[in-house]
Design goal:
By secondary structure, the protein is α+β, with helices and mostly antiparallel strands. The protein folds into two domains: 3-87, Arc Repressor Mutant, subunit A; 90-181, Arc Repressor Mutant, subunit A (Orthogonal Bundle). The protein is 50% helix and 12% strand. The protein has helices at residues 3-13, 15-31, 38-45, 49-63, 92-102, 109-121, 126-133, 138-146, 168-174, and strands at 74-79, 82-87, 124-125, 150-155, 162-166. The strands form two sheets. A three-stranded antiparallel sheet has the order 3-5-4. A two-stranded antiparallel ribbon has the order 1-2. It is globular, with a radius of gyration of 21 Å. It starts with a helix and ends in a 26-residue tail after the last helix.
Length: 200
């Protein structure tokens, strides 16, 4: 090992270096739409996976208020194959009310179309929604999540991507008790492979 390599390892392993890695990871996770794996995070910050794993564990402890710190209103949680920030469950009501108040009640045409795709094809990943609609749907899905009309339901077993489904709030807005009451849509909206399932 060269002198430069020794210096690099020492810097990455010292307290200041560890904090720097944590801050970079915090910034990346703040803007991530999907859970990020340790490998992806390590690649993004240019650090070994082992260093990133320790940094993530330190962030989790920090946000949870371990060792007398302040317990934050959000948490860093591992979901499926990756890590992502989430509002703590006890704060869901106030966040939901705030989002509903801050956003106009009327949904855009893009949001309505995306909501229809999710309703008829759920559980469905964001990439599958984008493929059906042939446009980027990231901001629209965020809007629907913020309105409480859709929710993250699970993780796709093949890709590890987050899947989405509609909520009880949507049923309330539509005035129905079950998605089975939705009208047939196969003749109206196709995903390029013969339309939606025959059931809807």
């Amino acid at each position: 090992m060269t002198a430069d390599s020794v210096t690099t390892v020492a810097v990455a392993g010292d307290g200041a270096g560890a904090v720097a890695v944590e801050r970079r990871l915090e910034a990346l996770l703040m803007v991530a739409d999907e859970p990020q794996s340790l490998v992806d995070l390590a690649t993004a910050v240019g650090e070994p996976v082992s260093v990133v794993r320790r940094a993530v564990e330190a962030l989790v402890a920090d946000f949870d208020g371990v060792d007398g710190g302040v317990r934050r209103g959000f948490e860093l949680r591992e979901v499926g194959v990756g890590w992502r920030f989430y509002v703590r469950e006890e704060h869901d009501p106030v966040v939901r009310d705030f989002v509903m108040t801050q956003n106009p009640s009327r949904l855009s045409q893009a949001a309505l179309e995306t909501l229809a795709v999710i309703a008829y094809k759920q559980p469905i990943t964001r990439s599958s929604i984008a493929q059906i609609r042939a446009v980027n749907v990231d901001s629209v899905v965020r809007t629907l999540l913020g309105r409480g009309l859709v929710t993250e339901s699970s993780t796709d077993p093949e890709t590890g991507a987050t899947t989405y489904e509609t909520t009880e709030l949507l049923l309330t807005h539509l005035g129905i008790s079950s998605l089975d009451e939705l009208p047939l849509i196969s003749p109206l909206l196709s995903d390029g492979s013969g339309g939606f399932d025959d059931a809807h």
